[in-house]
Amino acid sequence: MWIVKLGGSLAMETQLVSWLQMLATHGAGRVAVVPGGATFANAVRGAQAHWCFDDLAAHNMAVLAMAQTALMLHALEPRLVIASSDAQIRQALHAGRTALWMPLDMLRDAPDTLTTWEVTSDSLALWLAQRLHAERLVVVKSCRIDTRLTLAQQGAAGVLDARFAEWSQGAAFPIDLVQRDEVGRVRDALLGLAVPVTAGAAPMPMAATAESAAAHASDVEPVKAKTGAASSIAHGRRRAGPSGRLRTPRS
Known about the structure:
- The protein has eight helices and six strands, in the order βαβααβαβαβααβα.
- It is α/β, with parallel strands linked by helices.
- Strands 3-4-2-1-5-6 form a six-stranded parallel sheet, with helices on both faces.
- The protein is globular and about 50 Å long.
C-alpha cells in the first residue's frame, strides 16, 4: 500500500485533476490518498487568530477542513472511494479501487499529541502510513523541492510541520517528496517502470529521507536528489514514527 498526500495548495492548481486521474487509474488497489486542508484549513487559522479559541477546537475544525477537501477531490474524481477507517481503506483497496481518506477518526474530545498546530496533514499522512504498515509515503508539494535540506530543515523552513522529522525516525518505508509537476514519475513508479530522464538533465530520483529532501516556495522544476542518504523512487528507504495533526507548512 502507498499513501499519497496531496498538499492543500494543489487544490487550486491545474495539476490537481491530473493527479487524481492518475491515482484513480494507476493507484487502484494500491494507493490511499490523504487530502490536505486547503483553503478550508486557512479559514480555521484565520478564525482562531480572530477569536483566540483553543487548539482542540482548531484541530477538530482543521480535520473537518481535510474532510471538506476529500469531498471536493471525490467530486472531481468519483472513482476514488471515500474511506474513514482503516477497515474501509483496506476494503477499497481489496476491491481494486483507490481509497480517499476521510479523517473523521482524528476528531478529539480532549487535547492530545494531535491537537497542536505543530502537526499538519503531512504528519497525519505519515501517521496513517505507519498505522497501516504502508510500503511507501509520497508527499506531493506545490513548492520547489530542494533535496539538499534535511527533513528537520524543511520543518524549520515551514515546508513540513515541526513534528514530521521527529516522527519520521522509525518508519520501515521510504518517504518521497515530489513536486506538483512530477505526476508522470509517480505514475511510472507505480507501474514499476524506470524513472524517466528529462532531456538534457540528470535522472530525477523522487525520494526524500531524514537526511535528504525538502522544498522552497516559488517555481516548480525538476531537481536531482543529493547526499548518500537520498533514495530513488525505486530504491529508497526511510523511516517514520507515531502520531500526527494540523498546522500550515507550504504544500
